[in-house]
Amino acid sequence: MSLILQAVENIPLIQKGDDIADIIFKNAPDIADKDIIVIASTIVSKSLGLTFREEDVVPSADAKRIAALNGKDPRFVQAVLDESIEVITETPFMLVRNKNGHVCINAGIDSSNVGGGLLLKLPEKPDEHAAFIGKAIKQKTGKKISVIITDTNGRSFKSGQTNVAIGLYNIKAIRQWIGEEDLYGRILEISEEAVVDEIAGAANLVMGEGGGGVPAVIIRGLDFYTDEKVSIKDMYRDQEKDLVIRSLLELKNKK
Ligand code: GDP
Ligand code: MN
Ligand code: MN
Question: Which of 2, 93, 136, 208 is 20 to 30 A from 179 via CA?
């Protein structure tokens, strides 16, 4: 088996209103069946006009309190609160669950690769945006393609960040191994492979985090296409079953 990771070249600096599907199609005309198109959330957000100025945010008392704990700007903290449905840790950094259920630092609000002194939010409904872009590319090419929208996240337990999936179209989040045999005929009982995160991580080897200008990567050689309705939420663990989040919330509530 071999896998090809192909940068989509010549993508411009994305502006509000830009047609991401059309830009990818024009710069990657040889898209084939089963290709997986990995797209950095940054350009999806830019096309949706999700930039804002910190100066325009009015901080609440709560934002001021958390900002003082962390040495952050209260307006930035307010922006994070506005994007969050739950604050899991307030300090020394804000780990939150965003409106789509994704758990990450600062609700994914970022200024890198944005320009103009602006901040950028994550897309609010990343599955819908993945489907919108994917359907448009499917229509232009006639090919059965999948889309993964990604963001770069830190992880518990280890230093270093990796790209993870935040929105899906035509690819299941998890590859089931439960019930399959291992090398020695033993039945696997708990193995569920988070393939969309693995693919996101692989694509980031081509994207990078800096000024490389590669926000889209085409992955060829995998067999993960599905027509079924999928959602990134399929891989978000129930809060009650998540020992780490429960423990962090307990800690926060003790303070
Ligand atoms: P994130 O992981 O979604 O937050 O995105 P990053 O800021 O890490 O950027 C991922 C890749 O996309 C990097 O190669 C950036 O240089 C590139 N990138 C970000 N915005 C643009 C853009 O508007 N146009 C182009 N061509 N590349 C961009
Ligand atoms: Mn980001
Ligand atoms: Mn990144």
Answer: 2
Distance 43 CA to ligand 1 centre (A): 7
In a domain, 214, yes or no: yes
Q: How far is CA 253 from CA 54, 62, 246, 248, 250, in A?
A: 29, 15, 11, 9, 5
CA-closest residue to ligand 1 atom 9:
209
Average pLDDT, the chain: 97
Q: Which atom of ligand 1 is nearest to the CA of 163?
A: 2
- Percent of the chain at pLDDT exceeding 90: 97
Query: Relative to the CA of 210, which ligand 1 atom is closest?
Result: 16
CATH number at residue 108: 3.90.1660.10
Residue 153 sits in the same domain as residue 250 = yes
Q: How far apart are CA 242 and CA 239, in angstroms?
A: 5
Can you tell me which atom of ligand 1 is nearest the CA of 211?
16
Q: Are residues 156 and 240 in the same domain?
A: yes
206 lines ligand 1 (CB under 6 A): no
The answer as to whether 1 is a domain residue is: no
Quote the distance between the C-alpha of residue 57 and its chain's center. Answer: 24
**Global model pTM greater than 0.70:** yes
11 lines ligand 1 (CB under 6 A): yes
Q: Which of 10, 24, 42, 121 to mutate to test the pocket of ligand 1 (most atoms within 8 A of CB)?
A: 42
